[in-house]
Design brief:
Elements lengths: L1 H17 L7 H37 L12 H11 L4 H17 L4 E6 L6 H12 L9 E5 H4 L6 H18 L4 E5 L13 H4 L14 E6 L3 H13 L9 H14 L8 H4 L5 E4 L5 H14 L6 H8 L4 E2 L6 E2 L6 H30 L1
Parallel strand pairs: 1-4, 1-5, 2-3, 3-4
Antiparallel strand pairs: 6-7
Length: 366
């Protein structure tokens, strides 16, 4: 339309300029006018495009954009973190990495994962790894959206209000970036029926009648199923099966059965009934050698070389079960960072106190 207006305006202008020229041939006038107007219109379009791209580049230099610069989808980084920082979760590492790899390369619908296991086994840790690998700003990216049941949806009677709010936020997020990451922690504590509002977004790549590809990832995390996973793993041990030999198929049916029966956000959920969850990912309970690795990492993060004495002090505050074997940490690695931080603070305090005593003693002797 803009081009037509430019062509028409310039043509009329040239015609008016030459209307008094009796020798002028009308066809020649028209040809000259349209040629000139077409050149001007092309220049205006190119200038507009260049201006738009320049403005977009400037904006993306100063703000996060949904392009390869800010959303690199670094699978090598994710693989490295899963292999070197996640302990005792060979099944989760393999399933998550393969699922995301396939999703990025070929899927036009959102990827939906359910992380299930006891506290401190790495569910939140893995979701943060994905954010760090996907986004230049990691967990601080505006494309990473985190919801916690007790904090964001605490009152069950307000489920309708929460649904309106959640639908609006998810739709806005996907419109802003179709490669957004949504994490819902504490699904156990969410009002029943709340998550049904997500079905238009996760059941296909299209929503609201739009044909755009939705490459988002939805992760739902719950502690339900953790005890069943633990007991089933113990039964495998009784059958002399090595932990590393267990597979997703060993736990998937158990997790799905418990998910169907559990209260909270998944209770009578359309998401479950429609089989919209792509993978039920089991997180296995952690044993002492896994927790030891977490303790090493926690001390090193505080620039402290962990000695056997320091490590055993942390273990002395952790509990293991179930009896009589007591081989699994009741809290996984969840309390490790807090305990090591307190240990290091105490070491620094003792060191400073000792130095102060020595200084005062030296002054007294003088």
């Amino acid at each position: 339309m803009a081009r037509f207006i430019v062509v028409l305006s310039c043509s009329l202008l040239l015609l008016l300029l030459r209307v008094n020229d009796a020798r002028a041939d009308f066809s020649e006038v028209w040809e000259s006018a349209t040629s000139a107007a077409s050149s001007i219109a092309s220049y205006v379009e190119e200038l507009a495009d260049a201006t738009i791209h320049s403005a977009k580049d400037y904006y993306c230099q100063h703000s996060e954009c949904c392009g390869v610069e800010d959303v690199p989808y670094n699978l090598n980084s994710l693989r490295s973190m899963l292999w070197t920082k996640l302990y005792g979760q060979h099944i989760a590492s393999e399933v998550v990495l393969n699922a995301i790899n396939s999703h990025i390369k070929s899927s036009d619908k959102p990827l939906v994962l359910s992380f299930q296991g006891t506290n401190g086994v790495g569910k939140s840790f893995v979701s943060k790894m994905i954010a760090r690998a996907f986004y230049k700003k990691g967990e601080k990216s505006k494309f990473f959206h985190f919801y916690y049941g007790l904090e964001n949806f605490p009152i069950h009677e307000k489920v309708s209000e929460y649904q309106v709010q959640l639908k609006s936020e998810v739709e806005a997020a996907i419109n802003s970036c179709d490669r957004s990451l949504f994490v819902f922690d504490g699904v156990d504590y969410m009002p029943p029926g709340l998550l049904n509002i997500l079905m238009p977004f996760i059941d296909s790549g299209n929503y609201g009648g739009k044909s755009n590809k939705n490459k988002s990832i939805f992760i739902f995390m719950t502690n339900r199923g953790g005890l069943a996973i633990q007991n089933h793993l113990l039964s495998k041990y009784e059958d002399d099966l090595d932990r590393e030999s267990t597979t997703l198929q060993d736990f998937e049916d158990i997790i799905m059965t418990i998910t169907l029966r559990q209260s909270g956000g998944f209770y009578e959920s359309a998401m479950i009934q429609a089989e919209a969850i792509d993978y039920y990912v089991p997180f296995l309970p952690l044993e002492k050698h896994h927790v030891r690795n977490c303790i090493h990492d926690a001390y090193r993060a505080l620039n402290v070389t962990p000695t056997n004495d320091l490590i055993e002090k942390v273990f002395s505050e952790l509990r293991f079960g179930p009896p009589p074997l007591n081989i699994f940490s009741n809290s996984g690695c969840k309390r490790v960072e807090q305990i090591t931080g307190r240990m290091v603070a105490r070491l620094q305090f003792d060191k400073e106190s000792s130095s102060l005593v020595e200084t005062q003693t030296s002054r007294y002797e003088l």
